[in-house]
From TrEMBL, chain A:
Pfam family, one: ABC_tran
Database matches in PROSITE patterns: ABC_TRANSPORTER_1, ABC_TRANSPORTER_2
Cellular compartments annotated: Cell inner membrane
Domain (ABC transporter): residue spans on this chain: 4-249
InterPro entries noted in UniProt: AAA+_ATPase, ABC_Ni/Peptide_Import, ABC_transporter-like_ATP-bd, ABC_transporter-like_CS, Oligopep_ABC_C, P-loop_NTPase
Gene Ontology MF annotations: ATP binding
Keyword Protein transport set for record: no
Name under which the protein is recorded: ATP-binding cassette domain-containing protein
Family: Belongs to the ABC transporter superfamily.
Organism: Azospirillum melinis
Bilayer disposition of the protein: Peripheral membrane protein
Automatic annotation (TrEMBL), chain B:
Record SUPFAM superfamilies: MetI-like
Record flagged with keyword Ligase: no
Compartments in which it is found: Cell membrane
InterPro entries for this protein: BPD_transp_1_N, MetI-like, MetI-like_sf
CDD domains xrefs: TM_PBP2
The ABC transmembrane type-1 domain, residue ranges: 100-316
Membrane topology qualifier: Multi-pass membrane protein
Keywords, sorted A to Z: Cell membrane, Membrane, Transmembrane, Transmembrane helix, Transport
Family of the protein in this entry: Belongs to the binding-protein-dependent transport system permease family.
Protein name per UniProt: ABC transporter permease subunit
Superkingdom of this protein's organism: Bacteria
Organism listed in the record: Azospirillum melinis
Keyword Membrane: yes
Transmembrane segments: 12-30, 100-124, 136-162, 189-209, 247-273, 293-319
């Protein structure tokens, strides 16, 4: 049994379907990246897992954490899961912290929400947590307010809050998007380190394939609220299956050493992600896809082969499977290949 | 902390020019009214010789140049000598001191009541946004905002004093009451306080309802509220500690701005309810053309507003840790 099992997760706002029958699983200690353009339902998936989707949004499907079905849980019991078994880190650290409470108060509050610790013990634990996320001089910074911290430091505080109760699953929703590049790497390293040390499952939501290559074990590519591809990270970078994934990779600038390659225009994907409620029938990507033909008017079924899956009429996964997909364990190897 | 002490000091220094401007304006008002004190006294005596007027002017220091008169005026203020009220036959300072406590009691009660009920209703309205309850609160607060104070006061008197006979309609104490101890007296004052305080608070209460509601709704949409929910906090804790705590900031600002207006309100309410405070004294001074007394009241209430605004600013700095940095 996996740590997290998601089955047919659906989020709708009225008639608009934002997340459409999404299924995936996460193992303890594993990093799953959810990738896609803005507006494809990634963040809504994160909120739906913890049932934090604001009304009038409605959540359907099943979410099981350690076998416990979260979708049927009464709100009071769901609150006990939130922050305790599942921690979330949000995108913008500048606004994710309460400006009028000290950092110590905010971390201690997360500690006390799920433990019988007294104020003093919670404060001590808060200092420990800030230390764990590498905030220098953690003890002395407990009484500072968020405006005295830089963006990267605030994101560390937000991470400390998310892991306050030793959650089994940590969801990081674009945790580095709002940060400087140098800080991005630090935060990713921190998340990876915490996942390893605390044995958490990690869901990393991002639109940055570089981030994926750095940290993820497995990748789920979303488009217009649906899963279009899922693969191990090495497999995905070696042989992306779905045309959308291929175009995403093509749109990524590359830096190379040595002889400059012939000048090449960065490929963009024409058009925009369709808005929820205006998703075209059949394959949602077809209007932007170079390979699309009349066959794409039907919704492509998700073809599975082992742990890889793809939803495209143009790809025959079973036929391609015999092709050797590299199974590297050492990340540096496939990073080099990529 | 030295930073906050510096902030207090800076705000105090900033208040000084304001105080001087008020004194100057007050003095100019006195000078700009046609005729001087000698004319007023002479006019009332019916007949006065030029020598008598001359004597009066010398007596009240009106024969010296204006800037020296201003210096005298400031000197008087520094000694809390605000002149003499010929109508009441008492020094203005003493009159004001005598009436001030009643007005402070009335305004403070009204403000506290308005804050308590207004914030509570605002929170309820924001929590039940779009519901019938929200609409009802909105309609009532708009009415409270738009209805003139004196009318509300009169209607409350008709209902609670005349029809139901629950509460006294005028004054601060029961005339000829025989109190058995201090508690009895406080209770009597309290009963007299209810109607004027509620009347005075109604306008401000309506403002607080609307500000609280909109501030709460604004804060609800902010990211840190989602963080608070993601911690697994109870809804009550999210609302009070995270949403309301931040929504308080605009409420405190508006309270500071409105305190001047509440002094204006006391003139009407104290007159309607016969409350023996500064507002009614001001009304008496206007109708008896008691210029010295009126100016003394202006000055005194202006200073009170300055002091209270200062206090509100400091409170704001205590509530919002970002304030000192922004300066």
């Amino acid at each position: 049994m996996s740590l997290l099992e998601v089955e047919d997760l659906t989020v709708r706002f009225g008639d608009a379907v934002v997340v459409d029958r999404l299924s995936f699983s996460v193992e303890a200690g594993e990093t799953l990246a959810i990738v896609g353009e803005s507006g494809c339902g990634k963040s809504m998936t994160a909120l739906a897992l913890t049932r934090l989707v604001a009304p009038p949004g409605r959540i359907g499907g099943r979410v099981r954490l350690d076998g416990l079905d979260l979708t049927g849980l009464p709100e009071a019991r769901m609150r006990a899961v939130r922050g305790d078994r599942i921690g979330i880190v949000f995108q913008d650290p500048m606004s994710a912290l309460n400006p009028v409470l000290t950092v110590g108060e905010q971390v201690a509050e997360a500690v006390r929400a799920h433990s019988p610790l007294g104020a003093r013990a919670a404060r001590a634990r808060a200092a420990e947590l800030l230390d764990l996320v590498h905030i220098p001089d953690a003890h002395r910074r407990l009484d500072d307010h968020p405006h005295r911290f830089s963006g990267g430091m605030r994101q560390r505080v937000a991470i400390a809050i998310a892991i306050a109760a030793n959650p089994a699953l940590l969801i990081a929703d674009e945790p580095t998007t709002a940060l400087d590049v140098t800080i991005q790497a630090q935060i990713l390293c921190l998340l990876d380190e915490l996942r390893r040390d605390l044995g958490m499952g990690l869901i990393l939501i991002t639109h940055d394939l570089g981030v994926v290559a750095e940290t993820a074990d497995r990748v789920l590519v979303m488009y217009a609220g649906r899963k279009v591809e899922e693969q191990d990270t090495p497999g995905l970078f070696a042989a992306p299956l779905h045309p959308y994934t291929r175009r995403l990779m093509g749109a990524k600038p590359r830096l190379t050493l040595g002889e400059p390659p012939p000048r090449q225009r960065l490929q963009e994907i024409p058009g925009l992600v369709p808005l929820p409620g205006a998703i075209p029938p059949g394959c949602a990507f077809a209007p932007r896809c170079a390979d699309a033909d009349a066959g794409c008017a039907a919704v492509p079924p998700l073809q599975r082969h082992g742990r890889a899956a793809v939803a495209c009429h143009k790809v025959d996964l079973a036929a391609r499977a015999p092709r050797q997909i590299p199974r590297w364990t050492d990340r540096s190897q496939w990073r080099a290949a990529e | 902390m030295p930073t906050s002490l510096r902030y207090v000091f800076r705000r105090l220094v900033q208040a000084l020019p304001m105080a001087f401007a008020i004194v100057l304006l007050n003095f100019l008002l006195l000078k700009l009214t046609p005729g001087d004190l000698a004319d007023v006294i002479a006019g009332e005596s019916g007949s006065a010789t030029p020598e008598f007027m001359e004597n009066l002017r010398r007596l009240y220091g009106l024969d010296i140049p204006v800037h020296l008169q201003f210096l005298n005026y400031i000197q008087g203020i520094l000694h809390f000598d605000l002149g003499y009220s010929f109508r009441q036959g008492m020094p203005v300072g003493e009159l004001i001191l005598e009436r001030l406590p009643a007005t402070i009691l009335l305004s403070l009660t009204a403000i506290l009541f308005a804050l308590l009920v207004g914030v509570l209703l605002g929170v309820v309205a924001a929590r039940s946004r779009g519901s019938l309850l929200d609409e009802a609160i909105s309609v009532v607060s708009t009415m409270g905002f738009a209805t003139p104070l004196f009318w509300v006061g009169l209607m409350l008197i008709v209902l609670f004093s005349i029809e139901l006979r629950w509460l006294p309609s005028a004054g601060m104490v029961t005339v000829g009451a025989d109190y058995r101890g201090r508690w009895d007296e406080w209770l009597d004052i309290g009963r007299h306080l209810v109607l004027p305080a509620v009347t005075l608070s109604l306008f401000f209460l309506s403002i607080y309802v609307r500000i609280t509601r909109s501030a709460m709704l604004e804060v609800y949409g902010l990211d840190f509220v989602r963080t608070a929910r993601a911690k697994g906090l109870t809804e009550a804790r999210v609302v009070i500690r995270h949403v309301l705590r931040n929504a308080l900031l605009p409420i405190v600002t508006v309270t500071g701005l409105q305190l001047g207006a509440i002094f204006g309100g006391t003139v009407v309410v104290e007159t309607v309810f016969g409350w023996p405070g500064l507002g009614r004294l001001a009304q008496e001074a206007v109708f008896s053309r008691d210029v010295n007394l009126l100016l003394g009241i202006f000055l005194c209430s202006s200073f009170i507003v300055i002091v209270v605004n200062l206090a509100v600013d400091l409170l704001y700095a205590a509530l919002d840790p970002r304030v000192e940095v922004r300066q």
